[in-house]
Specification:
heterodimer, A: 95 residues, Mth169, Chain: A, three-stranded antiparallel beta sheet, 2 helices, 3 strands, 29% helix, B: 235 residues, alpha/beta, nine-stranded mixed beta sheet, 11 strands, 24% helix, globular
Chain lengths: 95, 235
């Protein structure tokens, strides 16, 4: 899929970048976000209505098959990188 | 009854658990390394507390993919006994053996103290010998013990009698005041629909000997032995 295994290094040097953003679901109270919101309010910005603290993950991927990589990454986002019970993820894959 | 205690990199309650099972309970007990796949014919599999894989990504998220977990999932699906305590509970939720998830404590603090929990279900293998609505004092020690599940999952847990332990005050009253971490419905421990998989945030292995000042946790281990003996007698 990505033209590279630990045994066979990348041949074509093509590179894709995946940017994955994980945020707590709207329905789940995000205590970190609440604490950060309070701090922002103390910094004289009371107009901030909501803060949600999540994670940002960047992957550099050998290969150029966007469709296949996207499909595989969706599974990895769902099974490993996020927990669908309490988190949402957004995957942005670019060549 | 043979007990198998899983060891992941970062597990740190494995030895306490081993001590209680082998020395206090006198059970045949073995460690099961996460890279192995054999459960060595253990009847009760215990996932101990700790910080498996440094809690990277999310608590329990990486441990869930350890080779041994495939065997644990098979064991659970065959009706085998599985107990997860603290980080073990988090791993069981991540692996889908128990519903819901454990997220950051509402007050963002790591809480380490003895706490009162009410026994809500005495059919679970972990509470078979406890009295319904009795109050146990068992220590908690976690930063991510805030039990969350969507409304329908929560309703299923409640109607199915799957809530095993709830945080309460010394008199057994459950309220937001006696809820240390923001868990929905004060949930401290649950079991699977079949009842054979149990997860709890309190650490019974830390209070199973009077020398430690409290032995309320011992009933959990005695219940497992009773449950196993009963099912063995039926087989």
């Amino acid at each position: 899929m990505c033209g590279r295994t630990p045994e066979s290094p990348c041949i074509n040097n093509a590179l894709m970048k995946a940017r994955i953003t994980i945020t707590p679901k709207k329905s789940i109270l995000d205590p970190q976000g609440e604490a950060v919101k309070q701090a922002i309010h103390h910094l004289d910005m009371p107009c901030v209505q909501e803060v949600r603290v999540g994670k940002y993950i960047e992957l550099d991927i050998d290969g150029s098959d966007l469709a296949k990589t996207q499909e595989k990454l969706e599974t990895i986002c769902r099974d490993l990188l996020s927990n669908p019970v309490v988190e949402d993820y957004r995957l942005d894959l670019q060549a | 009854m043979k007990v198998g205690i899983l060891q992941f990199p970062g597990s740190n309650c494995d030895q306490d658990m081993f001590h209680v099972c082998s020395q206090v309970m006198g059970l045949q007990t073995t460690y099961l390394w996460h890279k192995n796949t054999s459960l060595e014919s253990a009847d009760l599999i215990i996932l101990p507390g700790g910080f498996s894989y440094g809690d990277y990504l999310r608590c329990g998220a990486i441990a869930r993919f350890s080779p041994i977990m495939r065997s644990v999932i098979d064991h659970a699906k065959d009706g085998g006994l599985v107990l997860g305590v603290c980080n073990g509970f988090q791993i069981l939720c991540e692996s889908g053996l128990l519903p819901g998830a454990l997220v950051r404590n509402q007050n963002l603090k790591f809480i380490c103290k003895p706490i009162s929990v009410k026994v809500c279900n005495t059919n679970s293998p972990a509470t078979l010998l406890a009295k319904t609505d009795s109050v146990l004092t068992i220590p908690i020690a976690h930063g991510e013990g805030n039990y969350q599940a969507d409304d329908s999952t929560l309703a299923d847990l409640e109607t199915g009698g799957q809530v095993v332990l709830r945080y309460c005050d010394a008199s057994g009253t459950t309220s937001s005041i006696s809820n240390p971490n923001g868990s929905r419905n004060n949930i401290a421990g649950i079991c699977s629909a079949m009842g054979n998989v149990v997860g709890m945030m309190p650490h019974p292995e830390r209070c199973s000997e009077s020398a430690l000042g409290c032995s309320d946790g011992l009933v959990v281990f005695e219940s497992y032995l009773e449950c196993f003996s009963k099912s063995a007698a039926l087989a």
